[in-house]
Amino acid sequence: MAETNRQIVLDRLPQGDKLAPEHFRLIETVCPTAGTGEVLLRTRYISLDAANRAWMQGATYRSALESGQVMAGGALAEVAVSNVPHLKVGDTVFGDTGWQDYAVVPGKRLSKLPAMEPITHLLSIYGVAGLTAYFGLLECGNPQAGETVVVSAAAGSVGSIAGQIAKIKGCKVVGIAGGAEKGRWLVEELGFDVALDYKGGGLRQQMKEAVPEGIDVYFDNTGGEIFETCLFAMKNFGRIACCGAVSQYDGAAPPHGPRGIPGLIVTKRLTLRGFVVMDFESQRDAALIELQGWVASGQLKVQEDIIEGLENTPAALIGLLNGENRGKRMVKVD
Amino acid sequence: MAETNRQIVLDRLPQGDKLAPEHFRLIETVCPTAGTGEVLLRTRYISLDAANRAWMQGATYRSALESGQVMAGGALAEVAVSNVPHLKVGDTVFGDTGWQDYAVVPGKRLSKLPAMEPITHLLSIYGVAGLTAYFGLLECGNPQAGETVVVSAAAGSVGSIAGQIAKIKGCKVVGIAGGAEKGRWLVEELGFDVALDYKGGGLRQQMKEAVPEGIDVYFDNTGGEIFETCLFAMKNFGRIACCGAVSQYDGAAPPHGPRGIPGLIVTKRLTLRGFVVMDFESQRDAALIELQGWVASGQLKVQEDIIEGLENTPAALIGLLNGENRGKRMVKVD
After folding, report:
1. How far is CA B323 from the centre of its chain?
2. pLDDT score at B253
3. Residue A280 in contact with residue A131, Cβ under 8 Å?
4. Distance of alpha carbon B61 from alpha carbon A270, whole angstroms
5. How far apart are CA B218 and CA B240, in angstroms?
């Protein structure tokens, strides 16, 4: 099999500048060959996540990315050649393929995913996005019925699910998103109680009016000024689930953090907890069953934002960092 | 009883400036009279705490202080007149007397303390300081034997006890304090493994050398740059017990918080938890029994720093904010 393998290379790491198309380069190489214990994967849907940009800033829960390497990223992929007994040609897996048509991956890192229609749900609601929302909200936020939950980046892949789960749990749910149109969608389609527009100015005042009672649980996807605004609006004994900091990824590292830390943590007796979805691997199956039930009953709406063509992956990530997506963004490779 | 009552009044609230003697004024009034359900207390030992200064900045877990009022503060006091059945003349209580010779306090807020020698232990190890150290370290920090615990303001009333409890629990304990002399005391007298001198410069480098393995539990009394240094040195899944922020109380409010928040909370999966000792009221008796056992066995050394004379209370608080005390500072009123 000497097929062409298109690869998107991280040509140059951004150095405090915003991510741009010129940081990437599309090259064509020869399709690699799977060795002993390895599997050749054909990439089908590449997951786009704000975390992709964070990996360019330095080591996180994975090593920092380097210039010249194929851009890293997870994808739904089909097994094209298998040298391991537990996978056969045609199986669907989620793998750390990077942005390319084909990737060779150690078989032990892969497990077969169930058949599903649409298959893209394996990347959105039943993938990292859905599980991140589920565990972050329920394990770190621990919302109780009647409490007030605020979610930032609420129209994004994780936020849109976290907010809906909070509604299912009987909470008052406030979403923060950019623009009136996203806000209408959150309220009218997803059932959020209120949407705040961080691009509309006066977020503190909007918050005071929408949440005069204070916030019990804040699900933070953004960090930065939105985080600070919510911190000041927290109730005593409130919980902040720290999921990500998309406001901090694309550009120079901020010289300082939000005000009120640690003073407000003390006086309000807050708990802040950071998490990464892999930490909850042992609870994954139970979570998937619960998510499936909510989707089946119509309580949880799945929103996907599918871009066509591997060559459009850089633009799709840049757009995501600018907040242009609604729900889970992914790239259909061919 | 028309005795004179000396009172130290908060003459002028500091407005972003450092606390100074001219913020206070000593006046003489007539001793007040206890009404129905009230108790007249004679103040014996006034507790000095960094929190006294924080109360001047705005509402915390108590209302903000105002210019012209008697300076607030808790004290060990003797019942001089009792109009409630559960207290009699001569009983010792801990009350919110303020800085004055005599105070009238509702009887329902007071309970009789046990006889003890020295009585000052009721303000230090068996008072707010000891219980704050105990609950903050054990409930919020949850240190395990073999883990590395870092304590800031380690020579202070709370820090010196928190560090010793961490040693009792089998941890490696690193104290941060100002000056080589305090450091020697922490290591040689209290059994800390290492002391870092935040006034000596290069705290990050000192931390790297002392804690190459990273911090499991950070007991934060300071906030600010020391907090930031520890945040960057935390291990994955580390815990930060947020007890206070003495670096932030005396002067203008800082324009920004520590860097790395919330990014490092996410990638390191940290938990930060703020607390106030009153939150653990229901566990108080059990904690006191455990503390008494450690003191009796000599595992826990009690250090007190007693200043004589009500008139010296302002200077004693100013000195505490400048870090001149070692262990629990209090003022013996007469």
Report:
1. 12
2. 79
3. yes
4. 13
5. 5
- Return all residues near B194 (Cβ < 8 A) that are at least 6 apart: B173, B174, B175, B187, B210, B211
E strand or H helix that includes residue B43: strand B38-47
Closest listed residue to residue B120, CA positions, set B329, B283, B291, B263: B329
CATH class of the domain defined by A128-278: alpha beta
Contact: A267, B261; criterion CB under 8 Å: no
Between these two residues, B57 and A140, which has the higher pLDDT value? A140
Query: What's the confidence (pLDDT) of residue A98?
Result: 98
Pairwise CB contact (< 8 Å): A271 & B269: no
Q: In angstroms, what CA-CA distances link A127 with A48, A277, B115, B330?
A: 12, 10, 63, 58
From A245-254, A279-288, B214-223, the region with the lowest mean pLDDT? A245-254
Give residue A254's pLDDT. 82
Minimal CA separation from B221 to chain A, in Å: 10
Interface test with chain B among A232, A267, A280, A281, by most B beta carbons within 10 Å: A267
pLDDT of B251 reads: 87
Distance (Å) of CA B328 to CA A48, A181, B144, B154, B175: 54, 58, 26, 11, 16
Name the pLDDT band for A61 (thresholds 50, 70, 90).
confident
Q: Can you name the CATH fold of B4-124+305-332?
A: Quinone Oxidoreductase; Chain A, domain 1 (3.90.180)
Residue A167 banded pLDDT, cuts 50, 70, 90: very high
Residue of B nearest to A254 (CA): B259
| Strand spans (E) along A64-132 | 75-82, 92-95, 102-106
Per-residue CA distances from A57 to A17, A96, B112 (Å): 11, 19, 58
- Beta carbon pairs, A and B, within 8 Å: 123
ipTM field: 0.94
Q: Which amino acid is at B207?
A: M
Domain boundaries, chain B: 4-124+305-332, 128-278
CA distance B98 to A186: 52
pLDDT at B2: 61
Do A267 and A247 meet the contact criterion of CB atoms below 8 Å apart? no
Phi/psi of residue B286, each to 5°?
Answer: -65, -40
Chain segment B160-205, per-residue pLDDT in tens: 999 999 999 999 999 999 999 999 999 999 999 999 999 999 999 9
Report helix, strand or coil for A36. coil
Contacts of A267 in chain B (CB under 8 A): 54, 60-61, 274, 276
Structure tokens at A333: 């490779």
Across B183-233, where does the E strand assignment appear? Answer: 194-197, 215-220
Amino acid A334: pLDDT: 85
Query: Which CATH superfamily hosts domain A4-124+303-332?
Result: Medium-chain alcohol dehydrogenases, catalytic domain (3.90.180.10)
| Residue B233 CB-density burial (10 A; 0-12 exposed, 13-18 middle, 19+ buried) | buried
**C-alpha separations of A163 from A51, A276, B328 in Å:** 20, 18, 47
Distance from CA of B159 to the nearest CA of A (A): 16
Amino acid at A259: R
Q: What is the CA radius of gyration of chain A?
A: 20
Cβ distance B262 to A60 less than 8 Å, yes or no, reads no
Q: What pLDDT does residue B211 have?
A: 98
Q: Which two tokens stand for residue A258?
A: 């939000």
